[in-house]
Design a protein that fits this description.
The complex is a heterodimer of chains A (about 550) and B (about 100).
Chain A (H helix, E strand, L loop, with lengths): L5 H22 L5 H10 L2 E3 L4 E5 L5 E3 H14 L3 E4 L5 E3 L7 H9 L17 E2 L14 H11 L14 E4 L13 E8 L2 E8 L11 E8 L3 H15 L10 H8 L1 H15 L6 H12 L11 H9 L1 H10 E3 L5 E6 L10 E3 H14 L3 E4 L5 E7 L3 H9 L15 E2 L14 H14 L2 H4 L4 E4 L13 E8 L2 E8 L11 E2 L4 E2 L3 H15 L7 H8 L2 H7 L1 H8 L1
Parallel strand pairs in A: 6-7, 7-8, 16-17, 17-18
Antiparallel strand pairs in A: 1-2, 2-5, 3-14, 4-5, 4-13, 8-9, 9-10, 11-12, 12-15, 14-15, 18-19, 19-20, 19-21
Helix pairs in contact in A: 1-2, 1-4, 3-4, 3-12, 5-9, 6-8, 7-8, 10-11, 12-13, 14-16, 16-18, 18-19
Chain B lengths: L7 E7 L5 E4 L5 E2 L11 H12 L5 E12 L2 E4 L2 H8 L8 H4 L2
Antiparallel strand pairs in B: 1-2, 1-4, 2-3, 4-5
Classes of the chains: A alpha+beta (about 550), B alpha+beta (about 100).
Chain lengths: ~550, ~100
């Protein structure tokens, strides 16, 4: 894991002292809210519906046990004993008080964490594949690149006032678990003729105008990464619209100017600045990469795992859904579900955080990850330790066997917390999870991603949910639109709107009708919802959703 | 014909705590919507909003919210204001827990 240099420590301390003074000046009246607002946003502090909210960056989703413990301490000391993990691998505290925030930031700095650039029109927390450094199908660990980009983008003087926020994601696998095609820039580490390089995707994004990113460069040599990205962001910074907030993201810039024009301008800028990069960036990357060396994997017998797998059906169900293939022999990647049926997706209590920290130390080479799907990953667990790990997870509601299933729902905070929301998300997610748990259909249904956003900004990624739900305010009443067939992977697709929306008390029944239609229509139990949807198209699912319209058409 | 004016209250978030507050006839801020000044005249609403916005050292983001006249003072007409008055629905936190 990356550990801070003297420079990092000094920078963060200076920045936190600066913000402490800014808070003090807001409180004593020297700064107006209009003056203070951009300053607090640069430091991750929002004002939400019921309180302030502090959004803390978890760079590329990676945490040590000590960092996780500190997050728990902050939750207990200055919040209400829990935190909310987000779709950008961040954690949000929902109840901080303004005078306490400088102390919270200092406490974060003690463990090399911060809230810088988690808001504002800057380059945001760089996200990465949550299985980085562990996945069996990985070409290279994406985190050194993500850390390099974090250092490059943090306080980058040219990129503090971009036309709009800017999100970058990195993956090192063909199988895209980081939704790189829905980012302003997506980076995929690829290998061509034995050489490692990068496929650069630009102009993806969700929100009110969902766009799948386009490949601007199919193979960028390693040494060109930073100057090329700088050229992309500079081009956007000059060309991007500042007259209309809704047309300011790079996806609009690329669409309005055309990918070819955008590429030409980028290449021209790249030619200008490439000579200025004389290798210091590559030295920095190499030094960072050395800090992400894989842990010393153990060679142990896996008999304990095999025995428990055969003997314990609860363990077996969990192992079948929550484990993924690891690159090292005898190891597994464990996804700990933060989606217990009926609970708030992505929330963890301080006790749960401490338990996860303990387990990471005991069984996980001291590493934790936060996924954009709002779960916690223990990326390196030896199979022989899985029975003990599972038993420990059970003690605090962390052993739910539902990863990738219908109750593993992404949900934004929605109108329960968010000032921008137009409807609630969390209770819809809770009710769907409970419904399918009661029906005992979840494992029979198989892989199915439901994603819920409480407004058009799409923090809940509903456009790329196999079933997406968008909560809106229709004439003062909550109303939920359904999209079908979305996909956030390497085959990214924006879901198709199914038809008129549903009321709050109708939405769970509507989802059940879609799912029951799928169960009737699938050719075999192995055919997933998404496969069935792609084979059949939307029509049979719409018929199930709107039976009355369907009957009328048939008549 | 102009449309009839919907009654309003002035609401904001407290500067230090961040929680929801309402402007009273005495130029104070209360945690209870029922104690807020019910404003039934459009011109008066604009004047009172200016009064409220002058208290920058106490509040953030004052605005006029639609309400209805209830037996115990103003009542929200929109679900957003109802949530702001109550707190989140997933936990018993916020106003519902703190303002008895």
């Amino acid at each position: 894991m990356y550990s801070y240099s003297e420079f990092d420590h000094a920078f963060l301390a200076a920045r936190n002292a600066q913000f402490r003074a800014q808070v003090q000046r807001r409180i004593d009246g020297s700064l107006t809210e209009d003056e203070f607002r951009p300053l607090r946003l640069m430091n991750g502090l929002y004002l939400q519906l019921h309180a302030y909210m502090l959004r803390v960056a978890i760079p590329y989703g990676t945490l040590s046990a000590a960092q996780m413990r500190q997050l728990a301490l902050i939750a207990d000391k200055w919040d209400k004993g829990y935190g909310h993990f987000t779709t950008r691998q961040n954690i949000q505290y929902n109840w901080p008080k303004l005078p306490d925030v400088p102390d919270m930031l200092d406490a974060l700095a003690q463990v090399n964490l911060h809230a810088i650039q988690t808001s504002g029109n800057t380059i945001r927390n760089v996200t990465a594949d949550h299985f980085a450094g562990a996945a069996a199908d990985e070409i290279a660990d994406p985190r050194p690149v993500a850390e390099l980009l974090r250092q490059w983008s943090t306080d980058h003087p040219e990129f503090q006032f971009l036309p709009r926020k800017f999100k970058i994601a990195v993956t090192g696998s063909d199988q895209d678990r980081a939704v790189i095609r829905a980012h302003d820039i997506g980076i995929q580490i690829v290998r061509q003729n034995g050489e490692i390089g990068y496929r650069i995707i630009v102009g993806g994004g969700l929100g009110r105008t969902p766009v799948i990113g386009k490949v601007i460069n199919d193979f960028l040599p390693q040494a060109d990464l930073l100057p090329y990205l700088e050229a992309v962001v500079t081009t956007y910074n000059l060309l991007g619209r500042r007259d209309n907030k809704y047309k300011a993201r790079i996806k609009i810039t690329v669409n309005e100017n055309g990918l070819d024009t955008f590429r030409e301008l980028t290449e021209a800028r790249f030619a200008e600045i490439r000579p200025l990069f004389k290798g210091m960036d590559q030295d920095a990357l190499a030094a960072i990469a050395a800090q992400f060396a894989p842990p010393a994997f153990l060679h142990k017998d896996t008999a304990a795992y095999d025995t428990t797998y055969q003997a314990d059906p609860v363990f077996r169900a969990w192992a079948d859904t929550n484990l993924h293939a690891h690159r090292a022999d005898g190891y597994a990647i464990v996804t700990v579900s933060l989606k217990a049926h009926g609970q708030t997706p992505g929330d963890a209590s301080s006790d749960q955080m401490r338990l996860l920290a303990d387990l990471a130390e005991a069984y996980g080479h001291n590493e934790l990850r936060i996924s954009h799907e709002q779960n916690v990953i223990l990326p390196h667990v030896h199979k022989s330790d899985l029975p003990a790990l599972h038993a420990a997870l059970k003690t605090d509601g962390l052993a739910t066997a539902n990863v990738g299933l219908i109750s593993d729902i992404i949900a934004c905070p929605g109108m329960d917390y968010c000032a921008l929301a137009t409807a609630r998300s969390i209770p819809v997610a809770q009710q769907i999870a409970q419904r399918f748990d009661e029906l005992k259909l979840e494992h029979d249904i198989g892989p199915l991603k439901i994603k819920i956003s409480g407004c058009i900004n799409a923090c809940g990624h509903h456009h790329v949910g196999h079933i997406g739900i968008l909560g809106l305010d229709r004439a003062g009443v909550e109303n939920y639109q359904i999209t079908l067939g979305g996909d956030g992977t390497q085959d990214a697709v924006i879901g198709e709107r199914a038809g008129p929306g549903f009321a709050y008390d109708e939405i769970v029944d509507a989802i059940e009708r879609i799912v029951r239609a799928y169960l009737d229509l699938r050719e075999t139990p192995e055919e997933t919802f998404l496969q069935a949807y792609r084979r059949l198209g939307a029509a049979p699912f719409k018929d199930a959703l709107y039976p009355e319209a369907s009957r009328k058409n048939a008549a | 014909m102009s449309r009839p004016f919907t009654p309003k209250v002035i609401t904001a978030n407290a500067l230090l705590e961040g929680d929801v507050v309402y402007f009273t006839p005495q130029d104070n801020w209360t945690r209870h919507m029922s104690e807020a000044e019910l404003i039934e005249d459009e011109a008066h609403a604009q004047v009172r909003l200016l009064d409220a916005e002058r208290q920058q050292n106490q509040i953030v983001g004052a605005y006029l919210a639609d309400v209805a006249k209830g037996p115990n003072g103003p009542e929200p007409t929109h679900f957003r204001e109802d949530f702001r008055r109550t707190g989140p629905s997933n936990y018993f936190h916020g106003k519902q827990a703190e303002v008895a």
